[in-house]
Structure formats: structure tokens, C-alpha cells
Amino acid sequence: MHIGVLTVLVAVFLCAPVSAQIMQRSGPVCGERGSLMDQLKHKYSEQPKSMGLAANGSVLEVLTAPTGTWTILLTTPQGITCLIAAGENWEDMEQDTLPGGGVFAVMILMKYGVV
What are 23's strand-pairing partners? Predict the structure, then answer.
């Protein structure tokens, strides 16, 4: 479970600059969680893969599809769900395949002040 959370956090921070540029042009995609989940399921066959609870009470979810598409959603304590990042070529990693057994992921999180 911890590896999945680290993978998600690394993905969020690596995608953040790209996602920020996209959102500046079009604004964040937010809405009712059920509606967004239905759209991702029907359009991309994405299903929940992992999730985590942030310190502020927000829930971060990763959805993936067998085709390799993925989406990261964030639901605030107020119930607003926003698409944080999305992409292609999702690949699950075993703990042994993470550089340094996950140390690399922690270093990235430390760089961005998360840890």
C-alpha cells in the first residue's frame, strides 16, 4: 500500500508542472465525484486503483485502465472533486523495481517539501 501511495505522490509532483499549464489555459475540471467517475469508466474504462488521505482531509484517487490510461482525482472535504492529472502508459511497479527501494520517491517528495 505504501508503494502505491509513493507512486501516486511521485506522479502528482512530476505531472504538476504540465497539469498546471493545462489548467491555466482551460481551468481545472471539477464536478460531482460520481459523475466524473462514471465518465472516466465509460469513456476510458478506468477503475479506482489506489487512494490516500491528505493531511487537509482531501482524498486523492488514482484510476487506471487496462489500456494504460490513468487519472488522478482529488476530492476536498467539501465534496468537490477535481481532475489533477491524466495520462497514458500507466505501469504498476513492484517494490524491488523502485530505485533505492523507494528512496528516490521520498527524495522527490522531500525536494517539493511534502515530507
Answer: none
Q: In terms of residues, how long is the chain?
A: 115
Main-chain dihedrals φ then ψ at residue 65, nearest 5 degrees: -130, 155
Give the model's pLDDT for residue 28.
78
- The reported pLDDT for the residue numbered 15 is 47
Tell me the average pLDDT across 86-92.
90
Instruction: Supply 38's cell numbers.
Output: 462514471
C-alpha cell at 95: 517494490
Q: Which helix (DSSP H) or strand (DSSP E) does residue 97 occupy?
A: none
d(CA 72, CA 46) in angstroms, rounded, equals: 11
Q: Which residues pair with 83 in a beta bridge?
A: 29, 73
| 44-to-2, 14, 59, 93 alpha-carbon distances in Å | 26, 22, 21, 21
Per the structure block, which three cell numbers stand in for 2? 505504501
Q: Are strands 70-75 and 59-64 parallel, antiparallel or unpaired?
A: antiparallel
Domain boundaries, the chain: 2-111
